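ok so for the tutorial part 2 we go from a plain amino acid sequence to predicted structure tokens. step 1 is just haveing the sequence, like this:
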Amino acid sequence: MARIKNIELPSEKQAWVGLTAIYGIGKNLGKTICENAKVEPSKKVKDLTEDEVNALRKEVEKHLTEGDLRREVQMSIKNKMEINCYQGIRHKKGLPVRGQRTNRNAHTRKGRGKVVANKKKVGK
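step 2 — the prediction. this is what the tokens look like for a chain of 124 residues:
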């Protein structure tokens, strides 16, 4: 089993796909890392030798991934919230940050309907 950056790579997947399990590594970067480490990208993770895994580890270390990347993203969000820029205000309110509509969508960001006080149906 290959373990890189404290992440257990899925053994049944190809090397470049397995690398995408690491936060901050996508499809293109996974392929690039395999090429730079001189590892066949289509080779299964379980078939990698120890030398190939070490080469991949060294190549992944050159990129900002996992905890460091998560910390940097959170710090930039906090910074925007502190300086009260538009995006920071949207983060505080829990609304979509990048200009999406909110009147008929955005339920994943806003949550489902909130109860409005003293709003009763007109009955007979």
